[in-house]
Predict the structure.
Amino acid sequence: MKKFLTLATLMIVATSLFAACAGGNSNQVTGLSGGDGVTIGVSMPTQDLQRWNQDGQNLQRLLIERGFEVNLQFGGNDVPTQVAQLENMIASGADVLVVAAIDGDSLTEVLGQAESAGIPVIAYDRLIMNTSAVTYYATFDNFLVGVLQGEFLRDALDLPNQPGPFNIEFFTGDPGDNNINFFFPGAMSVLQPFLDDGTLVSPSGQTAITEVATIGWSTENAQTRMENLIALNNLTPGGTPLHAVLASNDSTANGVTNALITAGFTPENFPIITGQDADIVSVRNMIAGTQAMSVFKDTRVLAENVADMVAQIVNGETVTINNTTDYDNGVFVVPTYLSVPIVATIDNYRELLIDGGYYTEEEIGAN
Ligand code: GAL
């Protein structure tokens, strides 16, 4: 299908519709038509983490249900691989691209090719930076994810009412993932005042986003850093107390948990640890008492939103968005659809994840 408008035309139409739309909550792309043989290229970052497998499978299924052909690729957390896969999709005539970037800063050139070919690009979960080639962005409210983590720690430690000091260490994700620029400041918007007044103390003194980043969101890297922090200040059950760890997601939380178990912590004296994604390992850790919470972002919801966006683009319909202010990729503010993240804990995981059909009892129980 070669009936797509150029991006420039898309943006003109989008801009005029923003102006015409009082609520600013919808966006029209006209002149596209669907039909047989429409191929959607779906580029996911890695199969190493549970969530991206679910994202890829869900999205593939929903797009096929809507009558599209799907070219699904996983980039192995390797930027050149993802770039090569995207080049391939463009060369083989993909009509729309859906991309969860490994490194949001590294796709400018390849997406320039998509733009020249008039292929709309949806940034999936992670914003793609420094390019005008992104047409839409679909994600969860990433700042809110961090706020939920910060609020959980604030409430669990009763920070407004307790003198402390409580010891806390911080872990966020990959520096190339623009999401950490929302997750971490979101958490710090709640926690920073308590660091400032001394209620919270970081024994390592590492509180800047650059100091607490985790390359590749890797469990191993988080574990190694936590082991170093433990050694640095003797953060052991009999040594310097450790009350909390802010981890931006589950893969980093798992690394922290592994290091703490090795250091002798048990569920009875475990620090309060946050996470995100409600991965199976973390749900098991919540049940075991070695992770206090996770932020559940239902990948079925995100995939559904994106499949709808794709269909709307292809059919020339109004594309549903609900945020036109927050996601500036360095070139423009990308029209975005945000979904709402939910706190998962030992108290609601059953209702949320099992009754909600996200996992079976067996998946959670199996070891
Ligand atoms: C983020 C994503 C999180 C988490 C992390 C590691 O971009 O929003 O849900 O999965 O990557 O893959």
